[in-house]
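Comment thread on ticket #2218

A.B. wrote:
> Attaching the input chain for the structure job we discussed in standup.
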Amino acid sequence: MNYFISPPEKTNLKIDSAQLINRLKAEWPNIDIQHLDNPERAYSLSFIISLKNSILEGSLERTGQSVVLDGDVRNCAQFALWLRSLVDRKYKLLFYDEAYSAEVELGSETTEHDIIKRFLEEVPYSLDMPTDFPMTTITLRMPENVVNSLARIAPVFGFSNYQPLIQHYVDEGLRIDMQRLNNPTIQKLTKTLIEHGVDEGLIAKAVDKATH
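C.D. wrote:
> Ran it. Output below, let me know if you need it in another format.
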């Protein structure tokens, strides 16, 4: 999902691209930055940062009025507060998603938790939430060649055997799908369609196509 950082209305704010590049490199030395010289493009530069939860991609609007982010909301929240610290406090900045289903004003007291909570408050369950759910054992039939491949590559990724590697793949795949489906707009639309009797299988296929 894309997130945006900008004033709530047009102002004379102009984030200078050269200054932003210097700040970005100082904060994240391994950042990948690309200049976008085509004046017809909406953005003047793009960047990719490797952070804890995922890769964070961002772009600076050519007008200097806004930054668009694509990545885990936790990383986006971290970046938003970092950017807020660079921009003059006389400019009000908002953090919001592409569907404008939620927004947070980036004030002096705003925390990462405030942002994350606002965008994940409708999510009934997250892999990162502490739980006391008991473990359960499942039986899973898989092709022998797949199991052999898992056993062969498990040590390469630091796993003792193929079983924790399977757990890792499930966790990562589930996290990605939950992030896609945790969009409040999609949640509300899905609920409305179900209430109107639309087949859940068709809804699932439509959501999958729209979010890939």
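A.B. wrote:
> Thanks. Noting for the ticket: The chain has a mean pLDDT of 83.
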